[in-house]
Amino acid sequence: MKKIYLCRHGESEYNAKKIVQGHIDTNLTEKGIKQAQSLAEFLKDKNIQKIVSSDLKRAYQTAKTVAEVLGLTVHVDQRIREMHFGTWEGLSYDWIYQNAKEHFYNWLSNPVKHPLPQQEDIFHFEKRLRLFWEDVKKIPEENILIVGHGGSIQGLLCIAMNLGIDCLWKFRHDNTGLSLVISNGSKDEVKFINLSFYIEK
To answer: How far apart are CA 39 and CA 177, in angstroms?
Structure first.
């Protein structure tokens, strides 16, 4: 049985400023680095054998911080980078609440029916995550850490639970929140979602 830990990156500069990121590439804040260090301490006794990260800096820096503590290297895979949020990337949530609140809530309710302007095609997003997931389950190591983003981690959980991608925002991950999927290759079982008691607040 394979244990696949799914983790969202630590707090980034745009998280702290409450700005939509997507593919915009920002660094971790000091708080985000501390969150990643807390994550690493929590994972010390989990026998993590391989770490795979999104190529975006906020995820890679999180993964690198954990890898340094665990004595591992980080393998990068672009397929688990965040969804591209189209013209909303770089907008503040304050602006969105004031100018597009109804669209925002409709999108959270069903991102298939209510896509953002010029966002990445959601079925392309799902396809790249599904291909990644199938490859991860073929990795020989049994204990794997995946470091991604709110959207990509939750997308992987939708796939593991056989939910439609329209359920993408039905649950959420805090910064460095951790989920665990147990897989035997043909069957996936989600053990917990968004474990976060260890996170630097």
So the answer is: 8
